[in-house]
């Protein structure tokens, strides 16, 4: 009989190789994951004893770094009370408090919170809310969505259908996905006024299709996994105006940008606009547990539950998980009692100066920063199998994809660690260029 408890690292790594699916991976891939044994502050300790500075905040989520005393304490005390109970017919203080806090920190019109268990589900819920809202208003013909090219909203079926259908990672499924509409991605960079040319595609689509459009869905200001691009706040403002003019809902997917990452608490604030439906996730629990939420207005909620529908039919088993909600409440305490705006602004400055030398490396197409996000775009895609071990050898944890080498570190990173992270990133890219041209 296999002894599962006393197992060498070699043995469990073999089990991992033989049986485990990793994100976005092929079983034929030559890229072997690094074994990590612990994480504290902004550092991950690998099973072989090496330490790396985390430049990824575990995909935008670990904003306070790892092993945070306040979050640990919240988890421990909630565990003593209860780790989970079903949310159907029961409620508890961690969920109710989280709901109130989310309502208090988001635009005033958003008063109803659906607590979901992942970002993709939060976006699915937003889509269902939008469709059911129009059914409630007797307009079931408004059943299509309009998303942006280069957009990314998740890996489940409804969310795959609003990811970029050409360059996105889900095009294999195009034939079986609902057919939505896609506007050209905004090309006007952040900080500039959107040109009429930039508005042309989305304006034309809304004008032509508003009678069948339930909602526009977009990632405000930062298009993440679809290209790490920062676009014009003016574009977002004008899309909001178009939605108002043509009676189309606006769904803001702030799963990645929420809770300060772009320099504002929510990226919509850059444009001074309020979405009709807002999705948050990732950093909600400071990266401790999977939790997300979808917020909408009282008017939307009332219409959704009116007429034949009567109720909103969605209820994940782990909805409102008390442990995750308690940690989320602690994470919001830590965030809102800190000077996060100065921290993020300092990180933006540190990234701007630290990554600037990358512009001198041949093969670098662009370097851009916004809030606590730094992006180096290359002319050619990186080879993950060779570049990832190099980053680790230099003591940093980054996970590039395609032509993008990017970082979104925990907000707690020190100026020295940030400078090191940038210097090592540039050292690796210079080495890569020297070796492979
Ligand atoms: N929307 C956006 C903008 C995201 O970046 C992501 C995750 N990368 C999702 C939705 C999906 O979230 P999750 O991975 O938690 O399902």
Automatic annotation (TrEMBL):
It is found in: Cytoplasm. Belongs to the class-III pyridoxal-phosphate-dependent aminotransferase family. BioA subfamily. PROSITE patterns: AA_TRANSFER_CLASS_3 (PS00600). Substrate binds at residues 59, 152, 282, 315, 399. The gene is bioA. Pfam families: Aminotran_3. It catalyses: (8S)-8-amino-7-oxononanoate + S-adenosyl-L-methionine = S-adenosyl-4-methylsulfanyl-2-oxobutanoate + (7R,8S)-7,8-diammoniononanoate. Homodimer. Pathway: Cofactor biosynthesis; biotin biosynthesis; 7,8-diaminononanoate from 8-amino-7-oxononanoate (SAM route): step 1/1. It is an enzyme of class 2 (transferase). Its cofactor is pyridoxal 5'-phosphate. Pyridoxal 5'-phosphate binds at residues 119-120, 253, 316-317. Its main location: cytoplasm. It comes from the Bacteria. It comes from Spongiibacter thalassae. Catalyzes the transfer of the alpha-amino group from S-adenosyl-L-methionine (SAM) to 7-keto-8-aminopelargonic acid (KAPA) to form 7,8-diaminopelargonic acid (DAPA). It is the only aminotransferase known to utilize SAM as an amino donor. Signal peptide: none annotated. This is Adenosylmethionine-8-amino-7-oxononanoate aminotransferase. Its EC number is 2.6.1.62. The record marks 24 as: Participates in the substrate recognition with KAPA and in a stacking interaction with the adenine ring of SAM. NCBIfam families: bioA, PRK05964.1, PRK07986.1. GO terms for molecular function: adenosylmethionine-8-amino-7-oxononanoate transaminase activity. Keywords: Aminotransferase, Biotin biosynthesis, Cytoplasm, Pyridoxal phosphate, S-adenosyl-L-methionine, Transferase. The keyword Transferase applies. The modification N6-(pyridoxal phosphate)lysine is found at residue 282.
């Amino acid at each position: 009989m296999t002894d599962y408890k006393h197992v060498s690292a070699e043995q469990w790594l073999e089990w991992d190789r033989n049986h485990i699916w990793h994100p976005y991976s092929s079983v034929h891939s030559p890229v072997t994951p690094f074994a990590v044994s612990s994480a504290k502050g902004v550092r991950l300790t690998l099973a072989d004893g090496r330490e790396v500075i985390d430049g990824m905040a575990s995909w935008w989520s670990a904003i306070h770094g790892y092993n945070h005393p306040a979050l640990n304490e919240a988890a421990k005390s909630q565990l003593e009370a209860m780790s989970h109970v079903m949310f159907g017919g029961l409620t508890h203080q961690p969920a109710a408090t989280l709901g109130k806090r989310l309502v208090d920190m988001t635009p005033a019109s958003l008063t109803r919170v659906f607590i979901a268990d992942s970002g993709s589900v939060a976006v699915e819920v937003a889509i269902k809310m939008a469709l059911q809202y129009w059914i409630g208003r007797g307009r079931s013909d408004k059943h299509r969505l309009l998303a942006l090219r280069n957009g990314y909203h998740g890996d489940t079926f409804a969310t795959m259908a609003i990811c970029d259908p050409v360059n996105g990672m889900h095009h294999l499924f195009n034939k079986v996905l609902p057919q939505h509409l896609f506007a050209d991605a905004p090309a006007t960079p952040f900080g500039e006024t959107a040109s009429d040319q930039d508005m042309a595609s989305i304006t034309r689509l809304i004008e032509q299709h508003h009678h069948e459009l339930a909602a526009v869905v977009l990632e405000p200001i930062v298009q993440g996994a679809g290209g790490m691009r920062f676009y014009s706040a003016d574009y977002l403002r004008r899309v909001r105006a178009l939605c108002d003019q043509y009676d189309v809902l606006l769904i803001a997917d702030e799963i990645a940008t929420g809770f300060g990452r772009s320099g504002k608490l929510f990226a919509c604030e850059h444009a001074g606009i309020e979405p009709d439906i807002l999705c948050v996730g990732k950093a909600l629990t400071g990266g401790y547990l999977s939790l997300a939420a979808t917020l909408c207005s009282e008017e939307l909620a009332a219409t959704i539950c009116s007429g034949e529908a009567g109720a909103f039919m969605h209820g994940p088993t782990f909805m409102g998980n008390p442990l995750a909600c308690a940690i989320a409440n602690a994470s919001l305490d830590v965030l809102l009692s800190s000077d996060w705006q100065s921290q993020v602004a300092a990180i933006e400055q540190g990234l701007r100066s630290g990554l600037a030398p990358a512009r001198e490396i041949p093969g670098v197409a662009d370097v851009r920063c916004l809030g606590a996000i730094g992006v180096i775009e290359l002319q050619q895609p990186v080879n993950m199998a060779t570049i990832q071990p190099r980053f680790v050898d230099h003591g940093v944890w980054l996970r590039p994809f395609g032509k993008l080498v990017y970082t979104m570190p925990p907000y707690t990173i020190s100026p020295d660690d940030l400078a090191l992270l940038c210097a090592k990133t540039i050292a690796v890219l210079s080495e890569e260029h020297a070796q492979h041209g």
